[in-house]
Amino acid sequence: MTRPLLIAFDGPAASGKGTLASVIAADYGLPFLDTGLLYRAAGHLAHVRHIDPVLAATLIDAETLADEALRGRDAGERASQVAAIPEVRAALFTYQQDFANQPAGAVLDGRDIGTVIAPHATVKLFVTAAPEVRAHRRWLQLVKLNPDLSEAEVLSDIRIRDERDSSRSSAPLEKATDALLLDTSDLGIEAAIATARSLVKSRL
Ligand code: CDP
Ligand code: CDP
Fold first, then answer.
1. How far is the CA of 3 from the centre of ligand 1 (A)?
2. E strand or H helix at 45
3. What confidence tier does 102 reach under pLDDT thresholds 50, 70, 90?
4. Residue 120 domain-assigned (yes or no)
5. Per the domain annotation, does 204 fall within a domain?
6. Alpha-carbon gap, residue 117 to 93, rounded angstroms
7. Residue 113's domain is classified under what CATH number?
8. For burial by CB atoms within 10 Å, which of 77, 132, 135, 153 has the most?
9. CB-ligand 1 contact for 44 (6 Å cutoff)
């Protein structure tokens, strides 16, 4: 029997990993999980309910995941803060691992998919881009929700989050040694999708 197709996308904020992962999932008819949304939900619930983030991580449901507030600037920052707590990561581990190991195969995107959640993935891509490029992309998304937000503020947020995510002791953001690197700094969406498709194909 052939192994189910499991594809891992990791990388820093606004590198384009979620966009690419969802396209590749559609290409291969695979279920897709944006794991960042789980950390955003845990941080958001902890904040609005004034509860411990570890408890919040156990209370995530479909309604929480559909909350528009999870797409906001504060939710990204809160996610990164709670994601540094090992017990929060442990509370979210089994759900992610079960999703990765379902018989249908799967695509997941996050920070530690290729290193911790699915080290056995068939294909691993580490998607990155220059901080200024990522800040511009994220600013274009966030300014629709908050017209007063400056690009410099978004760049500062991104640098702080990259540093925290990369330096934490529990499942830091890092490229798996066997991951393929995709730098999207100079690639528009269509070119990035074409490159991701050929990188995935090269590993199958
Ligand atoms: O979309 P963006 O890359 O800005 O963020 P996200 O993927 O929604 O993740 C939000 C935060 O959750 C990240 O900054 C990480 O701190 C954390 N995260 C993580 O630690 N591990 C993951 N697998 C996914 C997200
Ligand atoms: O998931 P992640 O935070 O890494 O990024 P994303 O949500 O896939 O992409 C962030 C924004 O950048 C989206 O609006 C994408 O359409 C855009 N993007 C882009 O302009 N050029 C790329 N090569 C990839 C994404």
1. 28
2. helix 36-49
3. very high
4. yes
5. no
6. 7
7. 3.40.50.300
8. 135
9. no
**pLDDT tens for each residue of 57-81:** 999 999 999 999 999 999 999 999 9
Please work out whether the CB of residue 105 comes within 6 Å of at least one atom of ligand 1.
no
Structure tokens at 161: 């989050």
What are φ and ψ of residue 180, in 5° steps? -85, 135
Residues 6+ away with beta carbon under 8 Å from 101: 4, 6, 118
Provide the β-strand partners of residue 183.
128
Place of tokens 């570890």: 54
Residue pair 30/107 in contact (Cβ under 8 Å)? The answer is yes
Task: Report how far residue 102's alpha carbon sits from residue 53's, in angstroms, rounded to the nearest whole number.
Answer: 27
CA distances from 56 to 43, 60, 122, 146 (A): 7, 7, 32, 26
ipTM of the predicted structure? 0.97
Domain count, the chain: 1
76 Cβ below 6 A of ligand 1: yes
- Pocket residues for ligand 2 (CB within 6 Å)? 11, 13-19, 137, 141, 184, 187-189, 192
Q: What is the DSSP letter of 194?
A: H
Nearest protein CA to atom 15 of ligand 1, as residue: 80
